[in-house]
């Protein structure tokens, strides 16, 4: 007799559905803040559109305005990749994403598990159930709070949560880019190619079923300069905006494959496009999706909000990517003059309010990523993965806080929003319209520097902003010291270093330094190694002074490569000091970082 399908049940505090960048960061943040967390993802690798299955690089506000580079867990992952994956290998990238989730204490991971059922108890979700194809197992997850990071908002259709789809009319929200009449069309999905340049001519024979584009006109005059401009790609191999972007995905994928192989045939065999030495090494079989369902929260972000760089009292994230509205026709539209896109550059960051990441009608449902509460036009800037990632960290942090306080997500808005914002900023998440207040112990202690004035360390801004540095320039081997008014129990220290968010002093092609993974491998560019930010403090030690006057090392490292550190300790002391020893640039003569260490925050943590 055949054995039936296995069924397992999991009881957790927070369940995250979808393991793209937003879901990963939501799950990691929730677990790090003490919530028992489970992440359910329907693919074998994490990262969603950034994974090896799709290979879209991570863009965000910092891709347009460099000081706005997303930090927190986003920068932690980027630096991990720079250090351990200098050749930008996608298998290594996948393993880094996997490691961050799989080995995070308090976080359980279910890969290859598609959420397909939900049970609701009134206005709250009781459980979700997914089928794991690799083990032929049904997994039911009971949780206090659910965070939908699936992109397609699977829990909307399973729970009755309010959502939007398509393009709104101008009348609905008063948006300049709104339509005369609303429709259900969306941005399409793209299928990407990866190629590398060799030192010899490479022939290419397309499959018989590929489309043939003998001229640029037959390819609708799409831009194809990506082999020399490595910070772009074949994003315009795009369809689906005029179809059902969820239920027609398989049909759309088949059509995109015919186009993709035909486009490469055009590049190689139909005219001179500088591709004769280029070799096609990878074609995606999973389209990268831009848009489907968007949830309705207590606030809907609009075009006016993003263009006016609006500040919100309940800001928990920010955006700054351009309004980047891919018109529904996709590949079938003329690319001449960018006619397949509707764009507007944003020069200042806009806030994203907490009210955009929890459901208006399902009390314990949150969401992050490309499905937040925003109009189609506002969504065209919030949808990029850098922004989605910091939204995920905010959602996970909020969910853990709500569980800890015995609250529902909406309740935090009334009584805990300042605490949530403080926790995010403590975790190195930047909120453009707020300043982090240093802890009481730092404020009440005497901060001394062997060299220069270190008071900037307490200004509450941990990065360069609009030309203002906000960092302390200290000499190598010169101490920063906190002296306490009495013997004090220390639980740790917080440190924010300079990871060169501008990537100004990082080796490699500057056009590629602000994205973790590239698609094209050109011999003519020195891109194969990331290098590492010369500004980063590589070697340092932290010491405490005991009541007997002796100094004791509580932490030292010779190979630091992270910007943000919160290091625990358990000691009673009368002073705490940091001694920088080497940066990554300190071995380079006449280099700005040869003699100095650049530090944005250093402060004691204690009772």
Q: Topology of this protein?
A:
Blueprint: E1 6-11, E2 14-17, H1 21-32, E3 37-40, H2 73-84, H3 90-102, E4 107-110, E5 113-121, E6 124-132, E7 137-142, E8 145-148, H4 154-159, E9 163-164, H5 170-173, E10 189-190, E11 193-197, E12 238-239, H6 249-269, E13 278-283, E14 288-289, E15 294-295, H7 303-307, E16 315-319, E17 323-326, E18 341-344, E19 350-353, E20 365-367, H8 376-382, H9 385-405, H10 409-415, H11 417-426, H12 440-444, E21 446-449, E22 472-475, E23 480-497, E24 520-521, E25 537-545, E26 551-557, E27 564-583, E28 596-606
Parallel strand pairs: 1-7, 2-3, 2-8, 3-4, 8-20, 11-24
Antiparallel strand pairs: 5-6, 6-7, 9-15, 10-12, 10-14, 11-13, 16-19, 17-18, 21-23, 22-28, 23-27, 23-28, 25-26, 25-27
Helix pairs in contact: 1-9, 2-3
Overall mean confidence score, pLDDT: 94
Q: Would you tell me the structural class of the helices and strands?
A: alpha+beta
Indicate the low-confidence ranges by residue numbers: none
CATH class type of the largest domain: Alpha Beta
- How many alpha or pi helices? 12
CATH architecture of the largest domain: 3-Layer(bba) Sandwich
Compute the number of structural domains.
Answer: 3
Largest sheet: 7 strands, antiparallel
